[in-house]
DNA sequence: ACTGACTCTTGCCCTACAGCAATACCTTGA
DNA sequence: TCAAGGTATTGCTGTAGGGCAAGAGTCAGT
């Protein structure tokens, strides 16, 4: 399957879109290969693109005042990922985007993307869907973690994303759970 | 200013909308008066409406496993407020909606609202705006609170929403900051 | 204006998690 | 294949905030 075929499949799983319509704008999405640990966006830069992950894995994370990393989201294969707030507001990003593994992505510029959102109904719908899901994911994570201990949060993660501990370094899992890697290491013993 | 005039002003502050266009759908929004502390939605119910706050103040909050309340959002005058995740997914809400003060709201049913989103371009735009802002607000709150002490979070709140401590009972401010009211009481002494 | 009921404050103790340091364990590249 | 640098584990200790209980303050309804 070519990169663009993979993207078309994604669109078709969410909305109606014929290959003919797709071919009119598919070239806005260009293939980009990224190395493990490579940064695609740094805190402070304005985000001017949206990314569709073909293979590999990205993470969006923030660095706190004392240098602690906090991972907001892991973008796996067949997901869009970007610094949404920076993309929407056009302001410097407060988060970094990094490839956790060697990855392949399709990149579309901000202007092209929003042009499509306004002119192609199916892309408009995809964008509405991205926004809704981003919001829902963010809310669920807050509420599901609220009032829970580190161990309970870990169990929640394992039940929702089994296998994540094998694929992603503990350091990053800890930063996703909002705990230090020391604590993660300790509570893993209690599982 | 009548309730509908107030809503029209809000729309016009966000997008172009003539009084004539507005009058075609304004009756979908019906006035509702709510008493202090009255619940407009309970956890477990499916949310079937969107609310525009004319006067007063609503809060959206969740009750944790041990009964601790966690306030996600205060909807002040001239804001839309609802349980967005429940409205979008059509699933039981995980949050409650309560009037903090005696309030007046304009209520629109879910079906009418989404009908307008699909048929009236300016409402479509308002909805996109609501989603974007909901997401951005949620993210900023997470990142701004990340790695900060309770005292720092309180200072952040006071600088972003001065006067909130006078208008809203401490209990609720504490639940917004993610701390107990004991702790809030103690850190207020350190201001 | 009075009373009963919430709401806020504060002393005390407790617990979950942070953070350092030392050790053991993987990876990756020449 | 081996060395080097990152990553994970674990003992020890420190601390922010939780939670109870008792008291003070405040507000709403009759």
TrEMBL record, chains A, B:
Single GO MF annotation: kinase activity
One Pfam family here: cNMP_binding
Domain Cyclic nucleotide-binding: from-to ranges: 16-117
Keywords: Kinase, Transferase
SUPFAM superfamilies: cAMP-binding domain-like
Top-level lineage group: Bacteria
Protein name: cAMP-binding domain of CRP or a regulatory subunit of cAMP-dependent protein kinases
Organism: Algoriphagus alkaliphilus
